[in-house]
Amino acid sequence: MHYLCRLIGYFGSTMKEYTIETKIRSCQFDELTAEQQALVNDAKQMTANSYSPYSRFRVGAAARLSNGVVVKGCNQENAAFPSGLCAERTTLFAANANYPNHAVQSLAIACYTDGHFTSEPGAPCGACRQVMLETEHRFGKPMEVILYGEKEIYVFDSVTSLLPLGFFAEDLHG
Ligand code: THU
User: Fold this and answer.
1) Using CB atoms within 10 A of its CB, is residue 37 exposed (0-12), middle (13-18) or buried (19+)?
2) I need a surface site. Which of 63, 101, 136, 145 has the fewest CB within 10 A?
3) Cut 0.85: pTM above it
4) Ligand 1 atom index nearest CA of 50
5) pLDDT tens digits, one per residue of 75-87
6) pLDDT digits (tens, 9 = 90+) for 28-49
């Protein structure tokens, strides 16, 4: 009986369905602008400074700000695992701490493991996407995100493409 009810509920449902589209541009390194290439190179270089003795997964990030300054960071691990922090947040928090009045225009990310950069673009974790979204929202300007992969590079014009249906400060007030 319970099963039958569920079946009727399913077919008789007036539930609406939304499809959320997201835009990812895929390209090769030589198709990036000189500015984008420089930022990707900074992110790649920063993987060398990664402190990741536990995962051995090195992530580097570089953020170009509206004043032209490039802030760099990489993942920092800890024996107490949750105390570590991803490269994206290390970088964005450093950028916002040192330059609180300058928007982040572009953020490049690169991952290195097993002796080489990953062939696929490294996907930022959910927590980093949330922080990236708040950074973009805070300055009211789209933040470009460049995910480096040896095989292809993904470019997002805005963090909203990486995290649709995001949670913002306004949501705290219903
Ligand atoms: N990591 C990042 O730095 N960024 C991400 O978005 C994904 C994961 C780091 C955290 C940890 O040090 C290692 O990669 C393995 O998860």
Assistant:
1) middle
2) 101
3) yes
4) 12
5) 999 999 999 999 9
6) 999 999 999 999 999 999 999 9
